[in-house]
Amino acid sequence: MGTRDTDWEGVRLHVVTGKGGTGKTTVAGALALALASGGKKVLLMEVEGRQGIAQLFDVPPLPYAERKIAVAPTSLAEHPGDVFALVADPESALIEYLEMFYSMKLAGAALTRLGVFDFATTIAPGLRDVLLTGKAAEAVRRKGGGGRAYDAVVMDAPPTGRIGRFLNVSTEISGLAKVGPIRGHADTVQNVIRSPQTVVHFVTLLEEMPVQETLDGIAELRALGGIRAGAIMINMTRSLPLPASQLQAAADGQLDPDLIAVGLKAAGLDDSGQLAAELAAELAGQAKTTLGQQEQRDRLAEAGQPCYDLPWISDGMDLAGLYRLAAALRTQGAA
Ligand SMILES: Nc1ncnc2c1ncn2[C@@H]1O[C@H](COP(=O)(O)OP(=O)(O)OP(=O)(O)O)[C@@H](O)[C@H]1O
Ligand SMILES: [Mg+2]
User: Out of 26, 42, 124, 227, which residue is the most buried by the measure of CB atoms under 10 Å away?
Assistant: First the structure.
């Protein structure tokens, strides 16, 4: 297959944020798989040191090293792609940076014991974050094999409440370290983050709180200027098999239990009427939830960003579920 048009042509760093527990790690993994389809190489990066990616892909805990963890889904006409993973921690990133910049050979453990890292982060509190974003920027820019080392980098990023500071930190560092290598490094990182190559996606559920955090997060990025909001990834969506015309009636409790009883009988379930009454009540509850979700959808739409639906995986999240989410993202044009 040739190239397909996706919503994120030219984007090479995908930052995935959202309210805690909404599925950032899961969606970042699915997006990495989706982007790797068709023979691409994608790096999936974790920055909070919780081994969420290893758990998600069902592999042993990952070190500070880039490891291939999955092969992308592929149609017969396509080449398979590869997803690599990296668990980045600021201490390792600092040692790597010092070794690279000063051509120093440092024994990581000794350096840490000497407290260089503590010292560095004390004089420059934002350094922790810039080391992590710096690692992502380095992977985005890295050359390899006559081209780019990676076609895309996906970052499982800090939650919405911290994302602005996390991504904007290089500016603070730049102010602190006015000259020298740190300044140069911070500027390079900002150039990647504030370029059209980088977008920030928001994972949300169709509930009041995560939707509010998403809208606040997008507004915060806009206020910072230059950092682009990407898609809104609506996770764990479920659809009620009721036509829109009956949804309101169901929510208002106007479903006729007698009709449900007839339906049950047709399905081979004999019922005294109690089951039908319970089903009607259950349906009314679900219809109310669905109507409430539509309201949240409308609020999200006002942000003006592309929205994708990721289905609720009812039988528990596993690799098969993850590939289903990746397929959903591809179908909707995310990759
Ligand atoms: N589409 C889905 N269907 C079913 N379960 C899901 C789906 N997406 C995520 N989950 C489950 O929800 C839980 C939270 O997901 P995940 O760990 O990805 O969230 P997170 O935002 O990264 O959380 P944290 O803020 O703790 O890092 C996990 O148990 C995950 O398996
Ligand atoms: Mg997570």
Answer: 42
Task: Provide the 3-class DSSP secondary structure of residue 233.
Answer: strand
Residue limits of CATH 3.40.50.300 in the chain: 13-238+312-331
pLDDT at position 263, please?
Answer: 87
Residue 217: name the closest of 20, 30, 49, 29 by CA: 20
pTM (global) more than 0.85: yes
CA 44 to chain CA mean position, Å: 10
**Ligand 1 atom index nearest CA of 317:** 31
Q: Is 321 helix (H, G, I), strand (E, B) or coil?
A: helix
Which of the ligands is closest to the CA of residue 19?
1
Specify the long-range contacts of residues 293-301, CB closer than 8 Å, at least 24 apart. 293/206, 296/206, 296/207, 296/208, 296/211, 297/206, 297/234, 299/211, 299/215, 300/204, 300/211, 300/214, 300/215, 300/232, 300/234
Ligand 1 pocket residues where CB is under 6 Å: 18, 20-26, 52, 159, 235-236, 310, 312-313, 317, 325
Pick from 228, 242, 220: nearest CA to 306: 228
User: Residue 326 is which amino acid?
Assistant: A
What is the chain's mean pLDDT, rounded?
Answer: 88
- DSSP for 62-82, please give it: P-SS-EEEEE----TTS---E
CATH of region 13-238+312-331, choose from 3.40.50.1970, 3.40.50.720, 3.20.20.70, 3.40.50.300: 3.40.50.300
**Exposed (0-12), middle (13-18) or buried (19+): which is 151, by Cβ within 10 Å?**
middle
Q: Which ligand is nearest to the CA of 203?
A: 1
Residue whose CA is at the smallest distance from ligand 1 atom 31: 317
Closest residue to atom 10 of ligand 1, CA basis: 23
pLDDT value at residue 127: 79
Distance 23 CA to ligand 1 centre (A): 4
Q: Which phi and psi (to 5°) does residue 295 adopt?
A: -60, -45
